[in-house]
C-alpha cells in the first residue's frame, strides 16, 4: 500500500523485481571487521615454543628431530619433533602433546652457517636418527604490503566515505545516521498528492476552520490579494488545550490547499551541539522556499520559542535562544509573496517570546478551544463510524454527558467503549458501555478488591451523600449526575457532575459550588462528630477558589476590587509578592472568613435536611451507585436559579461584584483520598 511517500524511488513506487544495491558505511564496517578477524586467525594453527640453539642441538643429538626449516634471511629455525618422541616434551606444552608443527622455534646470529652446522650434525648421527633440512628465504611480499599499507588504506577509505556522506548531505539525499547531517532539518515532507485530509475530516472547530480557510484561499489564489496591494500573511499560531485537533487542522489546511506540507516539532531544533538548531532552521526554510507554495507546520513551538532571558540556568545565551534568534530571522527574511506560510501550534502561548508573536511573523492567532455540545456531537459521529452500535444509541445524550472533553478524549471514550463491550462478550456497543468508559477515563479503573472496613464504608457513604445533598439543594451548584462509593483509581468514592457550559461565573455560582465542595467534610462532622482525611482534595480546591475570589476576581470589599493575577507570566521568577505584608494578612483573614461562612451555611443546609440526607446515605450503602432520579425521589425536584436560597443565608458573604473567570468545562470528580 502506498502512503504517498515516493521518496525512495523516483517517480513513484519502485517496480517489483528491481532493487537498488547501496554500498553504505555499514558494508564498509562489516568488511573491515572480517579483515581484522582474518588477520588474527590466519596466523597458522601451530603454537611453537621458543628455545635456545643449545636445546635444539641436544634434541638433534638425541635423535628426536624429524625436520628443521631454516629461514636464512630471518636467521630463524623451525623444529619438528618425531611423533613417537613428542611425549618427552609434553611438559613444555602444558601437559598436552601438540598436533601441529613446527613444535619449536629458535633464533641464531648472522654468523651462523646453517649448511655446515646442520650437515656436520647429520653426519654424526646414525642413519635412522638423521633429520630433514630445508633452507629457504622468506620474501614476505604480501605480509609487508599488508603491514605498511593497511592503515593508510583504512584512513583513506574512511575519509572518502565521510566526504561522500557530506556531499550527499549537501544534495539532500543523505541518510539520517550520517554525522554530517546533524545540521540538516529533520522535518518530514508530505507531498501535495499524499495529503488526503480535508476540512470534511475535521469535526467541530467551526470558528477555527473559518479562519484557516482564508489561509487556503491565500495559497490557492495569491494574485487575488496581491493584485490589490495586499500581502499574504506569513504565519498563523494555533492556540488551544491539548487534544483539541491543532495538528489535524494544520494537515487539513495543507490537504485542502493541495500544497507540500513540512511538519516538525519544536524540540527537533534543539540539540546538544552548538549551532545545530540554527542550522536546522536555515535548512528547513531553504527546503520550504524550493517547494513554495507550501506550508511549514511547527508543532509545540514553545519548546524553542520560549521568551528569551527567562531560562532557569546560569546563562541566557544558550543554544535554544540562538535557535529562536535564527527562527525569528528566517520568518522575517524571505519575501512576503514567496508562498511559504508558517503554521505553529502550542498550548502555552503565554510563555512565547513577544518578538515571535508580533505582526509580520505570526500575523494572527487562531484559538482552538474545547468543543461545545454541537461540536462534540459531530466529533462523536466521526469516531463511531467503525463501531457496531446498538440500534437505540443516542449520540446527543452521550455528548451532553461529556462536557469539557477534547477531540482526543472523545476518541479515547469511543475506543474504550468498544473494548468494554468486547470484555463483556457483547455483539454491539450500547449506551452503558460508553457511560462505563467515561467513568473509567475520569475516575479510573474500579478497585473491587480494596479492603474497606464497615465503619470506613459508612463514613464514605455519608461523605458522598453530603456532596450530593448540598449540590441538589443549592440552585447554582453543578447538576449532579451520579454518586458512587465504589473505589476508583485513588479515590474511595466519587460524585459526577454535569457542569453548565458557561463563560461567566457569578459570585452566587461560586459560593454554591464551594458549598458543595465542603459538603462531604461537613457531613462527616455531623455524623461522626469529627472529620477525616478523606476531604483532602475538596479542601485543596476550596482554598484555591477562595484565594482566587479575593486576589484575582476582586470579590472582597475589605481587599477591594483589585486583581493580583499575572496573565503575562512576567512575574514567574520574582521572589517578592505584588502586595505588602499587611495586605497579605488581610487576604488570609478574608479567605478564612469566606471559608468559615461557607462552612456554616453548608452545616445549616445539612442539618435542616438531615432526614433526607441520612436516607440518601443509607440508600448509597445499599446500592453503592445512585443517580439523580434517586435524589429527586428523596428531595423533590432540584432547586433552580428562580428558587434561590433565602437571602439571610447569603448575607455573611460580604462579597459583591460579578466574576469573570474561566468556565468549569470539565466533568468534575470529587476524589476522596
From TrEMBL:
An example molecular function term from Gene Ontology annotations: zinc ion binding
Gene Ontology cellular-component terms listed: plasma membrane
Keywords, ordered alphabetically: ATP-binding, Cell membrane, Hydrolase, Membrane, Metal-binding, Metalloprotease, Nucleotide-binding, Protease, Transmembrane, Transmembrane helix, Zinc
Name recorded for this polypeptide: ATP-dependent zinc metalloprotease FtsH
Protein family per UniProt: In the central section; belongs to the AAA ATPase family. In the C-terminal section; belongs to the peptidase M41 family.
PROSITE patterns named in the record: AAA (PS00674)
Sequence positions that bind ATP: 240-247
Species annotation: Candidatus Cryptobacteroides merdavium
